[in-house]
Amino acid sequence: MTTHLVWFRQDLRLHDNLALAAACRN
């Protein structure tokens, strides 16, 4: 269960980074 939480948090962080990258492009 703990590993799943870590993976979920990393996925959210990656999504935030992609959103930031898209915002920087515009």
UniProtKB/TrEMBL annotation:
Residues 2-26 form the Photolyase/cryptochrome alpha/beta domain. Pfam families: DNA_photolyase. Gene3D superfamilies: HUPs. SUPFAM superfamilies: Cryptochrome/photolyase, N-terminal domain. Signal peptide: none annotated. This is Photolyase/cryptochrome alpha/beta domain-containing protein. It comes from Escherichia coli DORA_A_5_14_21.
